[in-house]
Specification:
Bound molecules: zinc ion
Helix content: 25-40%
Largest sheet: 6 strands, mixed
Strand content: 25-35%
Strand order of the largest sheet: 7-6-3-4-5-11
Order of helices and strands: EEHHEEEHEEHEEHHHEEHHEEH
Shape: globular
Structural class: alpha+beta
Number of helices: 10
Radius of gyration: 21 Å
Oligomer: single chain
């Protein structure tokens, strides 16, 4: 079972989250039939999105993270709620590019140069929206920069997705560690040293380390205390009714053209790739709403 742990350390001067997300990322891969580098990119952002989702306080709060770059993946989008449910997709699931200099899946090159946008819908009139330029486009570093630049929260983000030889997901997970505004210099220094000394998320997961183990490793002797454990997973809440609402957004002219073609149409949910069929009769019913 995939889950997120929430923790504090150093007398609440640090707050932290860690996730194990193999099933979540494998489910995303199955839905979208993503190539290994697309699975890694989507998996990293899904894992981070799930953790950032549970950071939100409202029952109905929604979070969307978009990485839009000039790379061949043509963007990665993830949406999460505050209960550990997350969904997402990439523009081009088939992208295949050479491994990077370290022999790793080159997520940075797949995404390319561009922007990271975070939108939080917290039930207010206007959703909170913030955009920062992408740096390495490796996801974790970009989110670290987002937290510092947009939320003024010094953070360390680690994310990892490891693929099996058969291109299924072997390991996935990550952590987000954040300094509270009242964190003392000594704690900041100590955390920095720990972050620089730990191995990568995928290496830790390969050793069999749980989210609890990962945070214990990151925090060292700073007294990590676990405060919550939340089940998490890939979940899309789309339905034919919801897709109809999206269809209602198309122009009268386009709808008429589809009806005149006289063939049923397929409408796909971007987030989970489920196809919904609409008969000509159903489209005609929809058409009446315009009159
Ligand atoms: Zn869906």
């Amino acid at each position: 079972m995939d889950y997120i742990v929430r923790a504090t350390a150093a007398n609440r001067q640090i707050r932290a989250f860690a996730i194990t997300s193999r099933e979540m990322v494998e489910t995303a891969r199955e839905h979208h039939n993503t190539s290994p580098v697309a699975t890694a990119a989507l998996g990293r952002l899904l894992s981070a999105g799930a953790m950032m989702g549970v950071m939100m306080k409202g029952e109905k709060d929604m979070l969307t993270i978009m990485m839009k770059g000039d790379g061949p993946i043509n963007g990665v989008t993830v949406t999460a709620d505050s209960h550990g449910n997350v969904k997402g997709y990439v523009g081009n699931p088939n992208v295949i590019i050479p491994a990077n200099y370290a022999g790793k899946l080159d997520v940075g090159a797949a995404i390319g140069y561009g922007t990271l946008t975070v939108i939080k819908d917290m039930g207010l009139k206007e959703p909170y929206s913030s955009q920062v330029p992408l740096g390495t486009s490796e996801v974790a570093e970009d989110l670290t920069y987002y937290f510092a630049a947009s939320e003024q929260v010094p953070s360390a983000v680690g994310l990892g997705v490891l693929m099996s030889k058969d291109n299924t997901v072997k390991q996935a997970g990550g952590f987000i560690v954040q300094l509270m505004p009242f964190a003392e210099e000594e704690v900041i220094d100590k955390l920095e040293k720990r972050i620089n000394s730990i191995s990568s998320v995928t290496e830790m997961l390969e050793k069999g380390m749980t989210p609890e183990d990962i945070l214990t490793e990151v925090m060292g002797d700073m007294g990590v205390e676990f405060t919550d454990k939340i089940e998490t997973g890939f979940k899309c809440t789309c339905s034919k009714e919801k897709i109809v609402k999206a269809l209602a957004g198309i122009s009268k002219k386009d709808l008429d053209e589809i009806i005149n073609d006289g063939k049923e149409i397929d409408v796909k949910c971007d987030f989970c790739n489920t196809t919904y069929k609409f008969s000509v009769e159903e489209l005609k019913t929809l058409r009446k709403q315009y009159q």
